[in-house]
Amino acid sequence: MNAAYKALTQEWLSKAQSDLFFAESSLREFSGFYSQICVLCHDSAEKYLKTFLIAHGVRPDRVHDLMVLLHECLKIDATLCLLNMACSILNDYYIPLKYPSHYPDIVREQSVEAFDSAKLIQAEIEKRICI
Questions:
Q1: pLDDT averaged over consecutive 10-residue blocks of the chain (131 residues)?
Q2: What DSSP string runs through 109-130?
Q3: Contact 93, 111 (CB under 8 A)
Q4: pLDDT in tens, 38-52
């Protein structure tokens, strides 16, 4: 990986880790804010998938759909298909929670599910990038 891609990969990785750390801290320290935790988990997963693409010399599209990003990642590493369910779970939360909607209130269990999904994405992406 050339120096420019290495630096950009590290920057994206750092942002992804920061979002996930804040989601984890919020889940541990606060009661409530479950919608925000789900959105942070989605944001972290999005950044992890984009990190993977950048690490492989691919400029990611400006999209928030994790399934679209995962599809691009699968062109590089088909074993990432194991992230399909995690990406789907996080996608289901993103739009309804980020913008006003009639989506029911999120409960702690759902934010834990989102966090676990993001942690799986983190683990699999970090295993596959070399910086």
A1: 87 98 95 92 98 96 96 98 98 82 86 98 95 70
A2: HHHHHHHHHHHHHHHHHHHH--
A3: no
A4: 999 999 999 999 999
- Report the candidate in 44, 51, 24 with the shortest Cα–Cα distance to residue 125: 51
Give the tokens for residue 35. 């919608």
Q: How far is CA 57 from the centre of its chain?
A: 19
Q: How far apart are CA 127 and CA 131, in angstroms?
A: 11
19: nearest Cα among 46, 49, 55, 58: 46
Q: What is the pLDDT of residue 2?
A: 82
Domains in the chain, CATH or no CATH each: 3-128 (1.20.120.330)
pTM for this prediction: 0.94
Tokens encoding 31: 């009661």
Please give the Cα distance from 23 to 61 (Å, whole number): 25
